[in-house]
Amino acid sequence: MPLRRTAAAVAVALAALAAAPAAQAWSTEDRAGTAGGWLTRQLVGGDHLEIVFDGVAYPDQGLTLDLGFALAAADVARDGVERIGAWVSRPEVMANYLHFDAPERESYAGAHAKLALFASVSGADPADFGGVDLVAGLTALKAPSGRFTDRTAYQDYSNGFTQAFAVLALDRAGGAPRDAVDFLAGGRCPDGGYPLVPAATPCTPHVDATAMAVQALLAADRPDDAAPGLTWLERRQADSGGFAGEDGSAEGNANSTGLAAQALRMGGRTGAADKAVAFLESLQVGCSGPEADRGAFAFDRTGFATGSATRATTQAVLGVAGVGYAALSSVGDRTGAPVVDCAGTPPGSGTTTPTTTGAATTATTTTTASSTPDATTTDAPPATPTTTTEVVAVGGGGTLARTGVAVGPALWLGSLLVVGGALVLALARERHVARGGRR
């Protein structure tokens, strides 16, 4: 599929949308489940998300994978995860994500790591995903120091997220190299937190990067190295229960809080995790909100904004569901996209009647491209949200999905978006366009 939208491409996309299979929806009070249902309905053509840069829509592979991680955490929309896997394994989509269409000179560690992790989560083989050995490709990008870096003619986008995702992905694929785990553990700042930029001076701890590092270290059976990071996170938690990222908000935001809650749960810091989940609950749109927004999470307590909701929801779900990246799996999950039960039917009662909804919509997010690739943090909302509505709690006071479940040394992504994890490459795209590239 051409990355620049032409009239022909739009026609093809609309035809695919019309042909997309209907998804079965059911009503539930499960918070993670309804968020997963809302996310499924944001998929363009039923299988991916897009980012708008300079007025042009591009496929956003990184955020699409984050959405897939969120669906796995919520135990819903197995069919959605399968569609995402089929889309991202297309040769042209994967080549653009892993190599920016230039494998002879470009190869991105964050993209390899995030996609390899998604392959494992979806039940596929990361050593043979769409005919590509992602494990070998990622391993080839490890420096003698143990750090995973990009091979690029532009700039090295690798960072703390890259290293954490690489350790998580390789741990699930047979074992993370010891030097890679050592490099991650050795980057800890004196106060216990982990930096976004490895080896930077001074060492500046970062909420999102610390949450990711903690999960990766726990997955690699390094609890002693993870413990200072968990303690640092507890000290950074606001009275609201939230965690503030680079935006500096006093109460916190859904992205940073979702990742921190996930890490705290995996590390056995149950009290702090429960407090973070309570903050996340206050950001979810429920029965008093517009029907189209129900189940989604606002970025923060200033209100629901369409432009930041998709990324905020992908990472909030991880904290609410209480499942780490290392334990995420969509295998055996229920298909379909649930909706918020505003009739007060208890979850799991089996008395609700499934309804049919479209499996996909055109893009409802209006994310603006950033000069920071998505392998870093993505905790700031767009400067101009398209719509804002009051944040209201999910009706019925529904229970949280798997809150309090002990997952041992388990840990999950995607997705943050989601975080977290692999690159949007906005700077690279901009330079490519400036050089007369095909985008």
TrEMBL record:
Keyword Transmembrane helix recorded: yes
Annotated signal peptide: 1-25
Membrane-traversing stretches: 410-428
Annotated CDD domains: ISOPREN_C2_like (cd00688)
Source organism of this protein record: Saccharothrix longispora
Residues covered by region (Disordered): 343-387
Highest taxon in the source lineage: Bacteria
UniProt keyword terms in alphabetical order: Membrane, Signal, Transmembrane, Transmembrane helix
The protein, known as: Prenyltransferase/squalene oxidase-like repeat protein
